[in-house]
Amino acid sequence: MPRIPGVPTARASRLARLVYRIALRRYGAVPEPITVAAHHPRMLLASGIHEQLVERATRVLPDNVAQLAVYRSAVRLNCSWCVDFGTMLQKHAGLDIERLEHIDDYADSPLFTRQERLALAYADAMTDTPVRVTDEQVAELEREFGRDGVVELTYLVALENSRGRMNSALGITDQGFASGDACRIPVPADRRDVTEVSA
Question: Which InterPro entries does its entry note (predicted)?
């Protein structure tokens, strides 16, 4: 249970109810971070627009590289919600989720490509406190992905750090997206509210 409970559908603003419906259609359940953010409708709107713009702008890196770097940050931050949701996204993208069990051994594992290992190491360096990114590391990434690729990778990892730290601070934990059981927590609500969201 999060430290700030999510907003039930019956008490949600018109905007939040619309976002709940869209999320339900897209993911099969309403992500709990959305229900918690619904306490501040303007912040919910700003976050939603930002996430959509980032999704549309992410076109330089191979999908496997981008998704793994974001996932690695979630693992390092111990954000169980982000790990759960990130696993689902990789599964839906047709990526190999079995190897995620070996993510801690990426540096020496044949399960990860050179490009993936570079991005994973960068995600580690960015997520460390203090940040420990080096000039050499950025130069190697630039040779591999170009300057636009480095900017994209940096932005995605930084954004995941923001998501993970927010979810952890608010006590938002895994919701069952990876297992396909996310519908067990559709919205913080009584049965009447769940019916309203599903309609």
Answer: AhpD-like (IPR029032)
